[in-house]
Amino acid sequence: MDPLLEACRRGDVESLRRAANFGPLDLRLADECGRTALHWAADGGHVEVAMALIKMGADVDAADDDGQTALHYAATCERAEMCRLLLESGADPDAEDADGDTPNALGAVGLAMRSPGAD
């Protein structure tokens, strides 16, 4: 696995920041299934990593090979705080994956409303 993707999978925000200090990162980089660094951060619930990626310009609506966005992953894994971050960053709750499922149907908005700091 690419070191950028691996750092995000592990939630290693320091490695991510160190890599960014050497120059711009290719945030469109994906693994063999089309998962980006943001997908991996969302899947693991690594909010600090996701925040850093978003600040660096990661596409919050990038889809993997099955059409799933980071918000699909966060909703499926019931990552409330991640759902909130992604929604506040402009992620589309109605983006359909290959099966026609949307993050909203998977409970993303409800989870976000239950996360700390939700109004």
Written overview of the protein:
- This protein is an all-alpha fold and 119 residues long.
- It has a single domain (3-114), classed as Serine Threonine Protein Phosphatase 5, Tetratricopeptide repeat (Alpha Horseshoe), CATH 1.25.40.
- It is 48% helix and 0% strand.
- The protein has helices spanning 3-10, 13-21, 37-44, 47-55, 70-76, 80-88, 108-114.
- Helix 3 packs parallel to helix 5 (70-76).
- The model has no long low-confidence stretch (mean pLDDT 93).
CATH superfamily: Ankyrin repeat-containing domain
Strand content: under 5%
State the CATH topology. Serine Threonine Protein Phosphatase 5, Tetratricopeptide repeat
Number of strands: 0
N-to-C SSE series? HHHHHHH
Which parts are unreliable, with pLDDT below 50 for 5 consecutive residues or more? none
**In the CATH hierarchy, what is the architecture at level 2?**
Alpha Horseshoe
Fraction of residues in helix = 40-55%
CATH class: Mainly Alpha
Kindly report how far apart the N and C termini lie: 38 Å
- Give a quick account of the main beta sheet: strands, pairing sense, barrel closure: none
What's the pLDDT, averaged over the residues? 93
> From the alpha-carbon coordinates, what is the Rg to the nearest angstrom?
13 Å
Provide a quick synopsis of the model.
48% of the residues lie in helices and 0% in strands.
List the topology elements:
Blueprint: H1 3-10, H2 13-21, H3 37-44, H4 47-55, H5 70-76, H6 80-88, H7 108-114
Pfam families: Ank_2
Organism: Micromonas pusilla (Picoplanktonic green alga)
Protein name: Ankyrin repeat protein
